Structure formats: C-alpha cells, structure tokens
Amino acid sequence: MKQLTWLGLLWFALTGCTPAAPQFEASNPLDIAFGDPYILKASDGLYYMYGTGGVEDGFIAYSSPDLKSWTPLGQIYRGGTEDSWTVDTFWAPEVYERNGRYYMFFSANCKFIDESELERFRIGVAVADSPAGPFVDYSDKPLYDPGYPIIDANVYFEGERCWLYFSRCCYKHPVESEIAADARAKGMFEEIEESWVYGVELAPDFRSIIGEPVLLLQPPYNRDDAQAEWESRSVTSGEVNRRWTEGSFLFKHNDCYYMMYSANFYGGKHYAIGYATADNPLGPFVKSAHNPILQKNTEQGGDVTGTGHNSITIAPDGKTMLCVYHGRTTPTGDERLVFIDPMEVTESGELKIHGPSTRTAK
Fold this sequence. Notes:
The protein is 7% helix and 43% strand. The chain has four helices and 22 strands.
C-alpha cells in the first residue's frame, strides 16, 4: 500500500529523535465538545478532527491548518438509515488515508443483534473520497462480529500489513479478581465487569480479519499489582462496578511497539491513560511502571479531570508528537472537551505526556 506524507512524518517522529521539551501549545481545552478525539493530517496539508458527539446519528468533523483555528465541516457520516447495519450510539471514529481514499473505522449499535441486548456494539468501516466526507458504509454489515460487543477501533500499518485493535465491552463480562472479591466483601458490588483490549491482523481491503483476535491488555487480577490502584479507581471509589481497558492506540519507536490505553469510567473523574510495550504488534505487552502517564490534576491544584481516550498527531513543525485526548474542567462542567498536549519518548524509552494543561495558545 502507498505510504502517505503524514504517516511518513509520524514514522520519523516516532522512530527518530523526539523533542525533550514541549514545542507546541494549544488553547486547552479546545472549544470542541468531542469525546474520543482523533486527528488525521491529510495529504492536502490540513488537519481533520473526528470524535464522538455533535450529532446523534453519525459524526461531524472539523478542519484546521495549524491545530489552533478550527472550522466546522458539519455532518460527514450519517448512520441509522434503512440500508445501514447501524442503529444508533456512534462512537470513536478514526480515519485513515489509503491509496487516495479515506476509511473511517467506528463503533455503533448493530441492527442484526437481538434488541433485548442493552449493548449491541460492533465495529464497521465507512469510506469517502475526501477527509471531509461524505462517508458511506463500506459494507452492509460490521467488519467483524466476535459474538460480544466491541468498540474503539484503532488500526496500525506496517509495510503491506495492518492490524486492528479493539476493546471488548464490559457488558455481561464479569471477571473474578482480588479486586472483585474485595468489593464484594465490602458490600460494594456483587460482581465486577471488565473490558479487555484485543488485536488481530486486518485484511488489506479492510473487509475481514486474518486469524483470531489475541488478548493483549486487561485489568490486573491481584490487588498488589503495580497497576491495580490506578486502573481500579472507578470500583474502589464506589463509582461503578466496572473496570475498563479501552481506547487503545498503537505506534512504533526504535523497534518497540507502544500501546496507549485508557482505564476507569469514561464518564468519571478517574479516567486516565497508561501504556504498555511489546516487540511485536500482537504482543505480549508489558505495562509501564510509570503508569498512569496522564490523569486528573485536581489534587495538584489544577482543574482537569476525566483525561483519556487519546490519539497521536504531529505538530506543524513536522516533528513534535502531540497527544490528543478528551477531558473535563471545573469551569466547563461535565461536557467532554478536546485537549492537545506535547508528548515524547525519552532516551530511556519512557513515554511522557506534558499535561493535562489549561492555557491560551501561543
């Protein structure tokens, strides 16, 4: 497959030298009410932002020449139509430019699943000739149906091959663990449901998968696991009986594969980002001892909470890595808004995000 200019810049930034200090400042939070934001640097030189929210029956988008001034493009995909496999609840779009066309991977409730199921999410693909759409369904059915609800598609390309990453929903997925046993013993919750991240090779035409999905990440079983405290806050705080591992994003740096992911309730203050590394696109992945690398800052005097579900783009300077994520602030309330902060991979291989920040762009 043809490799595109923005992907080449991203590869250079992730495999070569990355800046040791922030080189870009956005006006955080942006005045864009998206959850799960994703930014594509298209071959026309513009940045395009997609995300959850804005309309109930699909997705809207924004464009920008510099990641600071954004132009609304209106609705670029409409689902829930008579000839679509989708019904409602459209989440987490990501768009990739391949061979002159644009492919949107997203989640939605599927009409082929029994309506008695409260969560009927599957992952599908829509296609367009422009990053501004209009996008239309690539098929009359989801890309893949594992028999349980899945969300948060992310695609990684390497040469002629590509891989799909997704999260199995917590819905009807109770998992026994020491954390679940503690919650039950304390009378908090009878069971704890979990979401897990899977990966699988994707056919080059984006119409099917190759082989069977591999389990890559899940919440810790043991209470003394180094990741257990931060990944279990939604449970231990009494917020909800679920532990999430979702919103994965994969990139490669110096022959190491980095998988960023989010844990805790996406609608709560404890939502946070961690990462894991592996030698292969399908793992095994080992979580970083530095997790979480992005979380609420209210305990340090800030006003940002609920930071998560990130993607990565490259600043206009062509080298500065940027983490794009959603969060909330005390002044703006419960609505999820977009944040953009510089990030880096240090010489020792540690992934750092310089945020969350609230500031005026420069």
